[in-house]
Known about the structure:
By secondary structure, the protein is mainly alpha-helical. It has 2 domains: 96 residues, Rna Polymerase Sigma Factor, Chain: A (Orthogonal Bundle); 78 residues, Arc Repressor Mutant, subunit A (Orthogonal Bundle), CATH 1.10.10. Helix content is 66%, strand content 2%. It has a two-stranded antiparallel sheet with strand order 1-2. The N and C termini lie far apart (51 Å). The relative contact order is 0.10.
Amino acid sequence: xxxxxxxxxxSDQMLNQEMEWIISAKQDPKNFAPLYEKYHxxxxxxxxxxxxxxxxxxxxxxxxxxKAIKNIGRYEYxxxxxxSWLYRIAKSELNQAFRDSRAKRxxxxxxxxxxxxxxxxxxxxxxxxxxxxFHALSQLNGLDLQxxxxxxxxxxxxxxxxxxxxxxxNNAKVKTFRALEKLKKxxxxxxxx
Length: 193
């Protein structure tokens, strides 16, 4: 029975296989295909959840993988799956797309994710609370919103969040806690929706 690391959803065997693919891709970028196949859908979903244009999301995702292939030789293993590095590239490409004004930042979460996230607030999940949550989320700055999304909507480990945002794991914990506290205050603010 393979043991899966619950933090990264990878077994040792999966990480070893991934390292073989990385070494092979470093020798010849044509060998990047297994990594592309493994992570394309995941990275696309990450990008698409943050913008409201499917075609642009495909374009941004393509740019992520073009940069990854071009820079695979500089990739250094840091104890987490390659996905963390790809997410950092995706974050950078998303920011570029937003700067280029080709895209608007959105929050695409489904009812299941809202219900799960609402448990953090220990509130009854109803229409008014969902509106309050979306309103509170829309008031967060970009970094705080990304921390909340990565931790609570995508269930990422703090170490992986740190890798994606290029900060230390402990800093990721602290910043996520602070972002959650801001969100709670915004959520609990008396306002008319």
